[in-house]
Design brief:
With 388 residues, this protein is an alpha/beta fold. It is built from 13 helices and 11 strands. The longest helix has 24 residues, at 178-201. The structure holds D-gluconic acid.
Length: 388
């Protein structure tokens, strides 16, 4: 089967994971906190703040049509109400560099990191965060709106809330804080709604949507009812905040299993990746179908990929994942693009640099990029429009 003409192929990154030197946000503090769960600090990351022209050349040469990257709020607003023209100009140059290479600029306004000054004021459980985020979005809209091709407001609000207030592995490091989980969720969803309104009112006309972390869900026999019980909290509570948006950004990697005792671990006999979850490329098709079931919106797969040092496994994973995408398109579902996570091996949050999600490797000591066979394979898929 052929991918349709105009299907948008891209790769995704996030500022904190690739730029380097993002010291003025909650993650930098989290990485350096005494007893941190982070395996190592982000440090220079992939130095993409400086090396983005070469990285965009790689994308163009491989045949991609878009680049998804995030703006670092703490660079743009380093202190409350103080905005950096230099940072905004930098991101405008990145967008222009995308356009010079016929790459659409898919801009995420918040990808896990929040400015240090905002979190000392209570972060995402402080009601003031919604207006703080709106003010930041207004400045971004005014400076960059006429250059953005697609905007993702907030990356995976469900992960920000769950990992930050239930699992304790993201800032602010709370565990089982149900109230914080609920309040941060409410504020993240409100911030998304505000961002959509502001971006639509500002310069430029471009699709705006939210990206949500999703999965394929399965249940032990007799406990199928528990899928909705959990998925409604983990996914639908955020999918339901997208009414009226232009698209939903589906982000998925694996499967979640539920049973009598709640969320279960990996199934015996199914390969478990270093990330701790199952090797499950079927998740892409399942996530697309659920996202459309709930929202009725057009879909971009804004993240999908695999953390592995075995690049052949990455190709196998992507083939199965993309076969699932083809089936959704064949069924007439409105799936408009696929963004591989990630372009580069980068800072995988608490895992540090141990996980390799890139189709391009990065030498940690020299920052030299090396395109992997999976990058060339994906290039062939994009050029031919087929998985054959
Ligand atoms: C996420 C984030 C990315 C991760 C990627 C691999 O989905 O958690 O958007 O920043 O690096 O998903 O885990």
């Amino acid at each position: 089967m052929q991918f349709p003409d105009g299907f948008l192929w891209g790769t995704a990154t996030a500022a904190h994971q690739v730029e380097g030197g993002n010291w003025n946000n909650d993650w930098w503090d989290w990485e350096h906190a005494p007893g941190t769960v982070c395996e190592e600090p982000s440090g220079d990351a992939c130095d993409q703040w400086n090396r983005y022209p070469g990285d965009l050349d790689l994308l163009r040469d491989l045949g991609f049509g878009a680049y998804r990257f995030s703006l670092e709020w703490s660079r743009i607003e380093p202190a409350e109400g103080e905005f950096s023209a230099v940072a905004l100009d930098h991101y405008r140059r990145v967008i222009d560099a995308c356009h010079e290479r016929d790459l659409q600029a898919v801009v995420t306004l918040h990808h896990f990191t929040t400015p240090r000054w905002a979190v000392t004021e209570g972060g995402w459980t402080d009601p003031a965060i919604v207006d703080r985020f709106r003010r930041y979005v207004e400045r971004v809209s005014a400076a960059l709106g006429d250059h953005i091709d697609i905007a993702c407001t907030i990356n995976e609000p469900n992960v920000v809330a769950f990992m930050g207030w239930m699992m304790g592995v993201f800032p602010p490091g709370k565990a089982n804080d149900l109230e914080g989980y609920a309040i941060s969720t409410e504020h993240l969803n409100a911030a998304h709604r505000g961002a959509v309104e502001i971006l639509r009112a500002g310069p430029g006309t471009f699709p705006v949507g939210l990206t949500v972390s999703m999965a394929d869900w399965a249940a032990e026999p007799g406990f199928e009812h528990r899928i909705d019980e959990f998925r409604s909290v983990h996914e639908d509570a955020y999918l339901n905040a997208t009414a009226g948006d232009d698209f939903i950004g589906v982000q998925n990697y694996s499967r979640i299993r539920v049973g009598e005792t709640g969320i279960l671990g990996p199934e015996r006999g199914v390969e478990v990746l270093d990330m701790g979850y199952e090797y499950w490329p079927q998740s892409t098709e399942a996530s697309i179908r659920h996202a459309i079931d709930v929202t009725g919106l057009p879909v971009y797969v804004t993240e999908n990929g695999i953390g592995t040092a075995d690049d052949e496994q990455r190709i196998r994973y992507l083939r199965t994942s993309l076969e699932g995408v083809q089936r959704t398109i064949a069924d007439g579902l409105d799936v408009r693009g696929f963004f591989h996570w990630s372009l580069l091996d980068n800072f995988e949050w608490a895992f540090g640099y141990r996980m390799q999600f890139g189709i391009v490797g990065v030498d940690r000591s020299t920052q030299v990029r090396t395109v992997k066979p999976s990058g060339h394979w994906l290039g062939e898929v994009m050029r031919s429009g087929s998985l054959v």
